[in-house]
Amino acid sequence: MVGYLGMNNQKPRCARGVACSTAVLVAWFGLVSTLGCGKGSSATGAQPQGPQAVPVKIQVAVAAPVKDTTEYVATLKSRDSTAIMPQVEGYITQIFVHSGDRVSPTTPLMQIDQSKQQATVRSQEDAHAAQLANLKYAQQQYDRINQLFQSGVSSRQEYDEAKTALDAAQAQLRSLDAQVTEQKVQLRYYRVSSSTSGIVGDIPVRVGDRVTNTTLLTTVDKPGSLEAYVYVPVERSTQLRMNLPVQIVDGAGNVIADSRITFISPAVDTTTQSILAKATIANNQDKLRNAQFIRARIVWGSRNQPLVPVLAVSRIGGQYFAFIAEDQDGKLVAHQKPLKVGEMVGNDYVVLEGIKPGDKIVVSGTQFLADGTPLSPQG
């Protein structure tokens, strides 16, 4: 009885404990269900995130003094180069020198066949001798007639005829004497000699070639200064002036000689519509050669232009582009801009159009960018 009553006393407490546990479990599952539903609705209603910012390096464009220059193809001509041409026509019988030989004035260079001229000289000398004999006869006749005329035996007409014949013979002799001298001088031209000292250039003719007075036999060049012949388009003629700096550059753009304009042609070349300008080049180390084509850079002046690193510039279809970082809604984004660039200065392009000083230029990571890409400046 006691035990039964004890059990009865415990049962209500147990029933109440079970009821409490059940309530706790129901509350727990309700919370979990609520959290699960909340998580699902949150994932379903989330806004999509935009593209991530690309880490790049940015450089501010700064204007720097840049030389305003233009390059032209120029020709070098020696100030001490002599073109050797014959003064007579004929066949070359002998060449006394070789290319590269050093010669002095009057050094024989070539021999032209002179047999025909020698025959002409002999003929003139024979005619001179014959006329000399005629002169002697005319002189004798004049002396005889003059004595008779003085004695009154000969008439005035006979005296005048003798005097005229003597004068004609003397004039004819002087003419033949001049012709003989001329032909002898002409004979000397068949041996071509150097008119100056220097180095023999190329010899394009050979023994047996027939030459005329317009045939170039060779050149004699004296090492020394050269002249650069620069043909400047008429459009820039107003900017041409004496003493403008001129730079001679090699294929890599390195300056190998400096000079200034020393001559400006007053006339325009009608064929090329250009103006000839000359600049004297000191060729102290013999790096340049006569008749060589070179690149001449005329420095018109200097101006301030923005510089852009070469790595920041891309070329598409012949057009240059660069990415500029601009503020948009408080963020930096990339915008691609077309450029007009000039020559290179070191590792930079001179920008003529498209970028102004103060613009923020993207100098790294450009291969990952598109117009409007967010940017994350680094460094």
| Strand fraction | 35-45%
Q: What structural class do helix, strand and pairing data support? A: alpha+beta
Helix content: 25-40%
- Specify the CATH class of the largest domain: Mainly Beta
Radius of gyration: 52 Å
Number of domains: 4
* Secondary structure tally: strands: 22
List the uncertain runs.
1-46
Fold-level CATH name of the largest domain = Elongation Factor Tu (Ef-tu), domain 3
CATH architecture of the largest domain: Beta Barrel
Order of helices and strands: HEEEEEEEHHEEEEEEEEEEEEEEE
* Widest sheet, order of strands: 3-12-15-14-13-16
Mean pLDDT: 83
Shape: rod-shaped
Task: State the distance separating the first and last CA atoms.
Answer: 90 Å
How many individual helices? 3
Largest sheet descriptor: 6 strands, antiparallel, barrel
CATH homologous superfamily (4th level) name of the largest domain = Efflux pump adaptor protein, beta barrel domain
